[in-house]
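Hello forum,

I keep getting stuck at the same step: I have a sequence, I want structure tokens, and every attempt I make locally crashes halfway through. Rather than fight my setup again tonight, could one of you with a working pipeline run this one for me? It's a single chain of 467 residues.
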Amino acid sequence: MANLYNIVNTDNIVAEFARGFLNWRSLRWKIAALVAVASIAVALAVGVLVHQSTLDRSMTQNRNNALQALQLVVDHYEQSGRIDNMSADLVDKAPPALLERLRSVDGTYYRGGATTWYDDRKPGITWMWAATVLDGQPVKDPKAAVPALPQTVIVTRVDAHADLLSRRALDRHIWYASLATLLVVVPLAALAAELPNRRLRRVARTARRIAEGDVDARTQVHGRAGDEITEISATVDSMADSLRDRLRAEQRFTADVAHELRTPLMGLVTSAELLPESEATDLVRDRVLVLRRLVEDLLEISRLDAGAEHADLRPVDLAEFVKESLARAGLPARLTVAGGEVAGGAVAGGAVVGGAVAETDPRRLDRILVNLVGNAHRHGGGPVEVALDGTTIVVRDHGPGFPDALLMDGPQRFRTGAAERGRGHGLGLTIALGQARVIGAMLAFTNAVDGGAVATLRLPSVSGHRG
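Reply #2:
Ran it on my machine without issues. Output:
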């Protein structure tokens, strides 16, 4: 049983990890997304700064190269009095925007000064132009004392395309480096987030185990003092300790009350048997019998709470066993086995075949079955049906159904949960659930869609004994 529990627990942990890994709204992916966004923001900021810085440096370098080339042409012109043919041809090819920078508001040329222009109008051809004006006066200068001489415009250019290609290559390398960084950082962030995520899942598993009744479950999550997950773990463990102490105090109180009542109850039973026969005597004996059953139930619950009950497992033919158990209890029920009905008052005589064999404790299974059917008669409505399908036993009534509190929290001692299901101590279902755990069975409570309470008991089957 322990090995089976470990296997099931391991499978649950693996399944939980897979669900968390595929859940895009999990904490792991939120952290990874935050890291990705931060990395992209840093990459964009660095990329923009590097691009702008490189562009400014490149423009300055190209501008200086163009001005140096222009100065060489100017020096040659001042020495020889003429412009080389290449520079002369460039005047007609110069961008209009470059020449506009040399013109005054009235359309004439200024004398002196130099300007540059970055020309990337044609794909694959990039130039840095430089121009200046030499000699003469403005063509339409009214203040000129002598006839205006035509001004000389000198234009030159340098190739800036290689520098443009270098900048584009740098931009590409920045993007490639950013993508490579993201491909490395995001998975690392997801893996790093798995560490706190694993601790949180362990806390969640422990909380679920506590909710399912395992008050000895603890998180066993360790971390640095002040760590939020460590604080949550300590709080869950503290809550479990407090809950365990309260439950044990309640269990001790129940056991003490049952034991203290047992001795005077035996005297009361003996005294009731000695009373003369009368209607009043019958009433007293009936009440004493109810009190005796209550004390016996409390003693049984105290043993279940203390873990003192142990199952004596053996193969049991369920079909025949259920039929005999209902017959011994004298509880009317309609029994069906794998779709075939067994008619009769309590249960008709004759063998029942075709059922499955379960590895269980017959005495405890009888106790569970009698409690479920008895609860259906006391608190539900007829007819009561018992269905056997393989190793699953379903007990159903046609009353108001289980209350919502029982469906949510399970059976609680001394609480029936709904007035419409009659009065009672709430011990029958509590004992049935406790005995089911002892024999390794699963007992679930639901309500039928068309009305009525449904209790489903699933027993472990014996391999190779299915009918």
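The chain is about 55% helix and 15% strand. If your local run keeps crashing, start a new thread with the error log.
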